[in-house]
Write a structure and sequence with these properties.
Blueprint (H helix, E strand, L loop, with lengths): L3 H5 L11 H31 L5 H28 L8 H7 L12 H28 L3 H22 L7
The protein binds fe (ii) ion.
The site of fe (ii) ion (FE2) has 2 residues, from loops.
Amino acid sequence: MATQHQVKTRQFSTHIDIPAEKRAELIEMLNQSLADTLDLYTQVKQAHWNVKGTDFYQLHILFDEIAGEVEPFVDLLAERATLLGGYATGTARMAAENSALPEYPTEAVEGLQHLNALIERFGLYCGRIRQAIDDSDHLGDPSTADLYTEISRVVDKRLWFLEAHVQKLV
Ligand SMILES: [Fe+2]
């Protein structure tokens, strides 16, 4: 069986006009984001299912709306990796192994605990996506940068929706 590194760096022939070394870096970055995004998506669903308290209904609905916006990015990132000649590493196990996000806190019960857990994770995720915009630009792939920009706009906005529940004047 191929090692994880061999699987991750697998490349297929393509006529796309981005040099193989740059594509390798782009594919690695996209697979990293794929893992982060699958993890984030399931964590938002976890909050959707398990939230309790007086704000249950509005948070239950909000978390599902957010999950519904994050989920399509999983497919877009995976397909960007494969169209660049790469191999998408997108099973739940692969995502769990590769994700840079902390695991969801099982102690979270009340709405505020779920909000704080998601705010922390969205903050991290938004930063990683913003970095990926720059990195794809430097690797000479404006289309990947554009995909990351699209994701960035959505998740920044959703971070605001989460944070507005707890924001204080500074
Ligand atoms: Fe549901």
